[in-house]
Amino acid sequence: MLENRAEEWKNMFLAEGREERDQQITALQKRRIIKLLEERFGHLPPCLAVSIERISDPEVLTEFIILACTTNSLQDFEFRSVAVHPSPRGQQK
Length: 93
Known about the structure:
Blueprint: H1 2-41, H2 46-54, H3 58-70, H4 74-84
Helix pairs in contact: 1-3, 3-4
């Protein structure tokens, strides 16, 4: 009984650690996207930064990092980002 309880706690602790790590990675990806866009194109419209912050899918964020590196303008980033994640500015959560 005690061994089972210890195993449960261990698994809960490990799951919490993975979840926290995933949240940190997602937050880092968002900061990288915003920083890349600011370095390349200057100040971002607040609504674009907010829409990036609302995205929680790591795959979408990875695609946005690639877009931020390869796009020709901020307007192009916004246009191309819709193909990756429909309506990034209008996203509601």
